[in-house]
Amino acid sequence: MFGRMGNYLQQLQQSGNPNFQQVQDFYFPNPDATYRGAPTYSGGMGNPYASINPYRYSYMDAKENPGDKLFADLIRAQTQDYMTRFAPIENFLASEITATGTKALAGDLQRTRDAIDTSSANVQGTMNRDAARYGVDAQQLDQNTMTSALVGGLNATRMRDADRRLALLSGMGGITSKAQQVGR
Questions:
Q1: Rounded-to-integer distance, Cα 128 and Cα 137, Å
Q2: How far apart, in whole angstroms, are the C-alpha atoms of residue 79 and residue 64?
Q3: Domain ranges of the chain
Q4: Global pTM value
Q5: Residue 45: what pLDDT?
């Protein structure tokens, strides 16, 4: 771990802080896909179509439909390729959908609260320093403004989560429409 962050994480760990693992995972995520809950691939990196021999049915009579048999081999290879490379990702994305949004909503809401609280503290600190330069008492931030910012941030987060849910429900993120746009 690097510099001050490493010292901070070391202090968190030594103090027995229950948030140590969350902080470490946020700044230094484990690259192991199974640790993060991301889908893993069971297929190899090789060509899934390499096992198809286009001359396998060339000895057959035309009445035995050798083209159909070769096409069936191709379809089987495509299905196996789909099941090993794409189905695990689609299943993972589909498992993220809940009745009211996605599983990421709670974390997103907490990050929004933290960001707004930190921003409010930064603004208050700046106001205090500015007032101290002139030797006057600093004013407190208006609680209504802070509450309004928090409510607006939380509502925007919920809207983004609803958009994410709809994107997952309507084609797993709209990948096909994005791919069509790139081709134009």
A1: 8
A2: 24
A3: 1-30, 34-95, 104-176+180-184
A4: 0.53
A5: 57
